[in-house]
Write a structure and sequence with these properties.
This protein has eleven helices and eleven strands. The chain is an alpha/beta fold. It has one domain: Rossmann fold (3-Layer(aba) Sandwich). The protein has a seven-stranded mixed sheet, with helices on both faces. A four-stranded antiparallel sheet has the order 3-2-5-6, covered by helices on one side. The longest helix is centred in the middle third of the chain and has 16 residues. The chain is globular, with a radius of gyration of 20 Å. The structure holds adenosine-5'-triphosphate. Adenosine-5'-triphosphate binds next to helix 1. Belongs to the ABC transporter superfamily.
C-alpha cells in the first residue's frame, strides 16, 4: 500500500478494491446549524476485514464523520453508501445492524437500569425476541470480558467498565462495522490494552471491520491496516501506518507529530549513521531492531 493523496481539485472517492467495500463516503459535506463546518467534501471508505484509523488534530472532523456512518447525522451535500444502500436517499432502515457507533463519552450510550437491560436494548430495538436478545447480550458481555457486570447499575461503573459495556451493547446487535470515537481516551494502561485487544479481536474473531478516531498514533500504528489523515473536514492522505508515519512532511502537514517509536528509530539511525531500510512502527519491532542495530 502506498500513500494516496486526495487532490482537492480532482476529488474522486474511488479506490482499488470496490468489491470489499462496506462503507463509501462520497464527497460528503456537513455544516452544523450554527454554520460550523463538520466535514467538507469528505471521501472515505471502509473495506471488509480492516481496521481503519482516522487521525487528525482537534476539530478536523473525525467525530462528525463517525456520526455520519450510521445516519446519526446526514450530509448536507454528497452521499453516504452503506453496503450498497444510500443513507442520503433515505435507505436507513436497520442501519444500526450494519454500523454500530461507540461514542467518546460512554455515558452518552448507557441509560438503562442495569447493564443487562442496557446491552439488551439494541437487540430488542432491532426486533429480536426477549430471550434471543438476552442471549445476544450475555454473549456480547462475555466476549468483551464483562460478564461479571451483568446485574450492575451502569451509573456506578468505572470509566473502563462503561467503555466495555458500551462496546457489548453494540456487539450484541452483530453489526458488520463498528466505529469508535477515541476508544482508549481517559482509560488507564490496563483498560486501554484490553480495549486494544478487543478491537483486534472484533476483526480477527468476529469479522467486524472497525473504524477508530484516535489521537493515539502509537495505538493506530499497532493495530490499523490503514491510516486516514483528516484535516479541515476531509481525508487528505491515506496509507499503511509504515508509509504514513515515516513521511515526516505529511505528518507535519496533518498537524500531527510522528509516533515516539518512529522518532526514536529515526534518532537512533541518525546517531549511528546507519541505513534506514527498516521502518518499525511498534515498540516490539523497534526493540527487535535495536538489538541488531541499523545497517547491520
Ligand atoms: N454539534 C455541533 N455544533 C456545531 N459545531 C460542531 C458540532 N460538533 C462539531 N462541530 C464543529 O465541527 C468541526 C469538526 O468537529 P469534530 O468534533 O468532528 O472534530 P474532531 O476531529 O472529532 O475533534 P476532536 O479530536 O477534538 O474530537 C469543529 O469545528 C467543531 O467545532
Amino acid at each position: 500500500m502506498t500513500i494516496m493523496r486526495h487532490d482537492p481539485d480532482h476529488l474522486h472517492c474511488e479506490h482499488e478494491d470496490p468489491s470489499r467495500e462496506l462503507i463509501h463516503v462520497d464527497c460528503a459535506s456537513h455544516t452544523y446549524p450554527d454554520g460550523s463546518v463538520g466535514i467538507h467534501e469528505m471521501c472515505f471508505h471502509v473495506l471488509k476485514d480492516e481496521i481503519v484509523a482516522l487521525c487528525g488534530p482537534n476539530g478536523s472532523g473525525k467525530s462528525t464523520l463517525i456520526e455520519h456512518l450510521n445516519g446519526l447525522l446526514l450530509p448536507t451535500k454528497g452521499d453516504i453508501v452503506i453496503n450498497g444502500r444510500s443513507v442520503t436517499r433515505g435507505e436507513r432502515e436497520g442501519l444500526w445492524k450494519e454500523v454500530g457507533v461507540i461514542f467518546q463519552r460512554s455515558e452518552d450510550q448507557l441509560f438503562a437500569p442495569t447493564v443487562l437491560d442496557d446491552v439488551m436494548f439494541g437487540p430488542l430495538n432491532l426486533g429480536m425476541a426477549p430471550e434471543e436478545a438476552r442471549t445476544a447480550a450475555l454473549e456480547a458481555l462475555e466476549a468483551v470480558g464483562a460478564a461479571e457486570l451483568v446485574g450492575k447499575l451502569p451509573n456506578y461503573l468505572s470509566g473502563g467498565q462503561k467503555r466495555l459495556v458500551s462496546i457489548a451493547g453494540i456487539l450484541a446487535m452483530k453489526p458488520r462495522i463498528i466505529a469508535m470515537d477515541e476508544p482508549t481516551s481517559d482509560l488507564d494502561p490496563v483498560h486501554s490494552a484490553r480495549i486494544e485487544r478487543l478491537i483486534v479481536e472484533l476483526k480477527t474473531r468476529y469479522g467486524i471491520s472497525v473504524v477508530i478516531a484516535t489521537h493515539d498514533l502509537e495505538l493506530a500504528a499497532r493495530i490499523a491496516d490503514r491510516i486516514c489523515l483528516v484535516r479541515n473536514g476531509a481525508v487528505f492522505a491515506e496509507g499503511s501506518p509504515r508509509d504514513v508515519f515515516y513521511d515526516s512532511d505529511l505528518i507535519h502537514e496533518a498537524g500531527l507529530k510522528q509516533p515516539d517509536t518512529v522518532k526514536t528509530w529515526l534518532e537512533y539511525c541518525r546517531s549511528q549513521g546507519g541505513k534506514r531500510d527498516e521502518r518499525p512502527v511498534t515498540r516490539v519491532e523497534l526493540v527487535r531492531l535495536l538489538g541488531t542495530g541499523p545497517g547491520r
